[in-house]
Design goal:
8 helices, about 40% helix, about 25% strand, about 220 residues, globular, Rossmann fold, eight-stranded mixed beta sheet
Length: about 220
């Protein structure tokens, strides 16, 4: 078992996800308070609406969830009746996601892999869901690399979440980081800047959905490939 004495919520992004205790913490943290349960429900609804945008253009039957983490969005994908590959760099996180697998007629395939270099063939799945990743990546060229990979393996469409800088929470986080003389570990950007990167990766935008626009920064963008 992989553990550390450092508090789970304070660990560096590159280290924390591969520890068993952090995976357990992350799997449960969205249910620890009423506000977090509401936020989790709203975020799942946001992802569902984005997938429905794609479905209006093309039907789909298979999906890649990367990074799948502890499977927070697997219940959304189960609602579409699709076959799923749940992919993450952390085996510990994927194991926590097994709790959602019984929702599917055909249990998801859990697979190790990185969004920077997906171990899948071109057009391997119909749609790709990439949630809660790119806001951790401050470099534009690395985000574009991820978006290109998502575009490569998706036959029909892609849903990607990012942090919208035109929001109260993003402004407060940036202000707090500057006050403390450090750089925030969560990178927010404008919608137009994100769409420019998506265009560079060859994705065609069809719409965006926000968790709570202008207040909470979490936003999902839907694209056709």
């Amino acid at each position: 078992m992989t553990t550390t004495t450092e508090p789970v919520a304070e660990r560096a992004f590159g280290n924390k996800y591969k520890a068993d205790d952090f995976a357990q913490y992350y799997a449960n943290k969205h249910e620890t308070s009423l506000m977090r349960r509401i936020s989790n429900s709203l975020e799942r609804r946001m992802v569902r609406k984005s997938l429905l945008r794609i479905k209006r253009h093309h039907d789909f039957h298979s999906a890649l969830d990367c990074p799948s983490g502890t499977g927070r969005f697997l219940p959304v994908l189960a609602g579409f009746g699709v076959s799923v590959i749940a992919m993450d760099t952390s085996a510990q996180m994927l194991r926590e996601g097994f709790r959602h697998h019984d929702m599917f007629d055909n249990r998801p395939i859990a697979s190790a892999g990185s969004a920077f270099e997906l171990p899948l063939a071109d057009d391997a799945v119909d749609v790709v869901l990439c949630s809660r990743l790119v806001h951790h990546i401050p470099e534009s060229e690395k985000r574009v690399c991820i978006l290109r990979e998502l575009n490569r393996v998706a036959r029909v469409g892609v849903v990607v979440s990012f942090f919208d800088s035109a929001s109260l929470r993003a402004w407060r986080r940036d202000k707090k980081a500057k006050r403390k003389g450090r750089v925030s570990g969560r990178h927010a950007m404008s919608r137009s800047a994100f769409l420019e990167e998506a265009n560079e990766a060859g994705l065609r935008p069809i719409g965006m959905n926000s968790l709570l626009r202008f207040h909470t920064e979490v936003t999902a963008a839907a694209f056709l490939t």
